[in-house]
Automatic annotation (TrEMBL):
Family: Belongs to the IlvD/Edd family.
UniProt-recorded name of the protein: Phosphogluconate dehydratase
A GO cellular-component term linked to this record: cytosol
Keywords: 4Fe-4S, Carbohydrate metabolism, Gluconate utilization, Iron, Iron-sulfur, Lyase, Metal-binding
UniProt cross-references to PROSITE patterns, sorted A to Z: ILVD_EDD_1 (PS00886), ILVD_EDD_2 (PS00887)
Cofactor annotation comment: Binds 1 [4Fe-4S] cluster.
GO BP annotation list: D-gluconate metabolic process; Entner-Doudoroff pathway through 6-phosphogluconate
Pfam families per record: ILV_EDD_C, ILVD_EDD_N
Record domain Dihydroxy-acid/6-phosphogluconate dehydratase C-terminal: where: 410-603
Names of the cofactor(s): [4Fe-4S] cluster
All copies of domain Dihydroxy-acid/6-phosphogluconate dehydratase N-terminal, residue ranges: 67-381
GO molecular function: 4 iron, 4 sulfur cluster binding; metal ion binding; phosphogluconate dehydratase activity
Length: 641
């Protein structure tokens, strides 16, 4: 199947735009490679420290410096339901790699916070920045230079992006991502949302609300709605960083453990000392990043990835922006209806055909690049399968072709009969800046709103007005000073039930904010991630109560209908942000607030790769001055410089 012309156009533009920084990245990658195991560069003292506490047989393997050593980098903690299963993974991994002659060491842990716990709390202001902290922690874990590949154990919102950003800064090492899987289905997401809306109206007690939430979030595994955590897992599959179909196998099952063992062995086999060298810096290239954007759009995934995918790409020297998302969204069909874009959860999606079905449908429609490298080698079509436990006596995992047809067309459809011809994520822009709008769950009649602005400096101020009964009217809520520089760009989920109630009551309402709503963005029209934010000179600070705001997803419009002379005569609003800077550890994150980029640039604190200036200290790469190759083809994966 020929590639869709828009996919070709956007990919070519990204390749051209990224040429200098991608070339620099690949040069850095080659410079970090060594002949033989990485630990061979260590002194005897270094190496002795690195295996001092290891079992005798594993220590012998490490001492001989011939076989690969695989790092385990884990986001385990037992408060996060999604990460609690990781407690038992290291033992499975260590035994699995021994069977292929390698050794695995627990290299380090990374922080893992739960947005569900911190939602609406001061701790949420650390959430976005935890992504870069996780990337830094990953770098610390790998900085010992003991390892020839790494397994990354993570699931949730900022954790997988942070792990991948960290992994890409060690792009010469192969990387395999190992998920834990979703919890089994409990109270439906639709019923959970209904309880939340009743509670916001004062029609349900706190005890009823807590009981409903507990029935929904009831066991080990990922939350089952299609938020950022499960969007992460989908993207790892589409980018070829998981074993096929690994994302949505529930924890505590024989298949889950078998997939973990198989992932560990695969990591050992794709090292320099294995069967085929596949470094993560070559798996993540311009085409795989575009594949990730397509995978996000076709499944109605989390808007957080309009930040995270930009940051991930940047770590690999690749530059994408919201125009790329917008152009692809116009031609990528919506193939899945998973809450909040439908009633089903991810378990239903997996049972209907899952990731293998989606990848095959998109490849056949010319909407994904097949000519990419994955952890299985060349070609994404190898991932159009689903895993099964091997029959008794064989052990391990076997892969079978994904179903030819969807098992439930209310949840999953083929590319010839999509739920929508577009991906439901649009760029809106105008005199208020640029913003992302997710419309896949917004009914057509609500996708355009023109109403007076009501300006708030926090979600708490909005909720106080709502509870006082002062918002029973048409309006556009402008929630400002929620950007990364102001307070770390928290998610504003507390607004969702209140706005949904007002919309259900027949009011024309919308939200415009420089904050986030994430994968839980639902049926109320919301222009989020408004960029630039006020602290970067953004025009959201010029809005006043009563200004008529036009938010139109169909035309891509975000503007205040204010006379030009009046608009330009205004001064940017100010606010006392001191309360956002102290307490709950927020003072420790001031360096992030002071150095973070704009939302459209990924809200990151690290720069694009720059050219290597000298050959001093390079292992094998031949790089002279500022001259760096411009594409992956300039670095043959299996060729030593």
């Amino acid at each position: 199947m020929a590639l869709h012309p828009v996919l070709e156009k956007v990919t070519a533009r990204v390749i051209q735009r990224s040429r200098p920084s991608r070339g620099a990245y690949l040069a850095h990658l080659e410079a970090a490679r060594v002949k033989g195991p990485q630990r061979g560069t260590l002194s005897c003292t270094n190496l002795a420290h690195g295996f001092a506490a290891f079992p005798a047989n594993d220590k012998l393997v490490l001492k001989e410096v011939k076989k690969p050593s695989v790092a385990i980098v884990s986001a385990y903690n037992d408060m996060l339901s999604a990460h609690q299963p990781f407690e038992h993974f290291p033992a499975i991994i260590k035994e699995a790699v021994r069977q292929v002659g390698a050794v695995a060491q627990f290299a380090g842990g990374v922080p893992a916070m739960c947005d569900g716990v911190t939602q609406g709390q001061p701790g949420m202001e650390l959430s976005l920045f935890s992504r870069d902290a996780i990337a830094m922690s990953t770098a610390v874990a790998l900085s010992h230079n003991m390892f020839d590949a790494a397994l990354y154990l993570g699931v949730c919102d900022k954790i997988v992006p942070g792990l991948l950003i960290g992994a890409l800064h060690f792009g010469h090492l192969p990387a395999v991502f190992v998920p834990a899987g979703p919890m089994t289905s409990g109270l439906s997401n639709k019923d959970k949302a209904a309880i939340r809306q009743r509670y916001a109206k004062g029609l349900a007690t706190r005890e009823e609300l807590l009981e409903g939430e507990s029935q929904s979030y009831h066991g080990a595994g990922t939350c089952t709605f299609y938020g950022t955590a499960n969007s992460n897992q989908m993207l790892m599959e589409v980018m070829g960083l998981h074993l096929p179909g690994a994302a949505f196998i529930t924890p505590g099952t024989p298949l889950r453990d078998a997939l973990t063992a198989a992932a560990a062995q695969r990591a050992a086999l794709i090292t320099e000392q294995g069967q085929e060298y596949i470094p993560v810096g070559h798996v993540v290239d311009e085409k795989s990043i575009i594949n990730a954007v397509v995978g996000l759009l076709t499944t109605g995934g989390s808007t957080n990835h309009t930040l995270h995918l930009v940051a991930i790409a940047k770590a690999a020297g690749i530059v994408i922006d919201w125009d790329d998302f917008d152009e692809l969204s116009a031609v990528v069909p919506l193939l899945a209806r998973i809450y909040p874009n439908g009633d089903a959860d991810v378990n239903h999606f997996h049972a209907a055909g899952g990731t293998g079905f989606v990848i095959r449908e998109l490849l056949d429609a010319g909407l994904l690049h097949d000519d990419v490298t994955t952890i299985l080698g060349k070609g994404l079509r190898k991932h159009c399968v689903e895993p099964f436990l091997a029959t008794a006596g064989e052990g391990g995992v076997v892969f079978k072709d994904a179903p030819a047809a969807s098992g439930d067309t209310k949840v999953l459809r083929g590319a010839a009969d999509p739920f929508s011809p577009d991906g439901g994520m649009v760029l809106v822009k105008g005199n208020l800046g640029r913003a992302v709008m997710k419309v896949s769950a917004v009914k057509p009649e609500h996708r355009s709103v023109e109403a007076p602005a009501l300006v708030f400096d926090s979600q708490e101020a909005f909720m106080a007005e709502y509870k006082a009964g002062k918002l029973d009217r048409d309006f556009v809520a402008v929630i400002r000073f929620q950007g990364p520089r102001a307070n770390g760009m928290p998610e504003l989920h507390a607004l969702t039930p209140a706005l949904a109630n007002l919309q259900d009551a027949g009011r024309r309402v919308a939200l415009v904010t420089d904050g986030r709503m994430s994968g839980a963005s639902g049926k109320v029209p919301a222009a989020i991630h408004v960029s630039p934010e006020i602290l970067a000179g953004g025009p959201l600070g010029l809005v006043r109560d009563g200004d008529i705001i036009r938010l139109d997803a169909e035309s891509g419009t975000l503007e205040a209908l204010v006379a030009s002379d009046v608009w330009h005569a205004r001064a940017l609003a100010t606010a006392d942000l001191t309360p956002n800077q102290i307490g709950m550890g927020r003072e420790l994150f001031s360096m992030f607030r002071n150095s973070v980029s704009e939302a459209e640039q990924g809200a990151t604190t690290f720069p694009l790769p720059s050219p290597i200036q000298t050959t001093v200290g390079l292992h094998d790469a031949e790089v002279v001055g500022n001259t760096v190759p411009g594409s992956d083809e300039d670095f043959l994966i299996n060729k030593k410089a």
